[in-house]
Amino acid sequence: MKKFVYRFRPTKSLWEFKELENQVVYCASLPELNDPMEGFKDMFWLGDKIVWTNLVKHYVLCLDRVCIQFLLVGDREVLKPESMPVFETENDLPSQRYKDYFEEIHAKFFGAPSVAEYLECLSALRRPVRRDELRYHLRVLHFHALNSIFETYRAKNFMPESPGAEAIREICTRIPAGAEVFRFEEQHPEYSDSLDSMYVAAAAIITQFALIDAAENPIDTVEKKNRNLIARQRGDTMRTVIEGFA
Q: What is the pLDDT of residue 227?
């Protein structure tokens, strides 16, 4: 180990924060750092059907709590990833009635044939699934999870039928959570070494489209809240869930 560690800091820090006098050095938190690779963790997911089912179920639980916030907060507030209860479980739900509602959501979501097929394919993987690939899989499952939540709450008269509800159902029908991507992997084993790069590229393309859309179609706070839940929240939910286990 080296005897000296060099730290570049503004000179004013010596007297403004008395760093030299107190023999302390301020260390910034990860959100304050300007290098996106600072603190990067090359985490991956690998497990059997029980492990994958629990991960996806926890994603649905976090999404459900976000939906509750979506219904309760004022129209001028935007939901933030920090408000997601990533460390909570079903046992932390506030009442038995709420637990029963979530059990209905859980049964509706996992009861969808396409979702069950997708989980079977995920469980059959014998290779690490890294961040960008996991984000892709959760994007596929997101609308099915959202539809299960909204359908359950509408049946309980907790929320009205909204114009966007039909669009979500249409997405679930036209773009089912099928397993085509896994079939491609089986049919083209020659690309097995390039899978991570493919998912990284796909994530970059989706991000670019989102930036272009935001630049060309400015939206107000209310519409941003809606988009965060339906289109963008899935990425933040996934990232918060995964980083919670780090």
A: 55
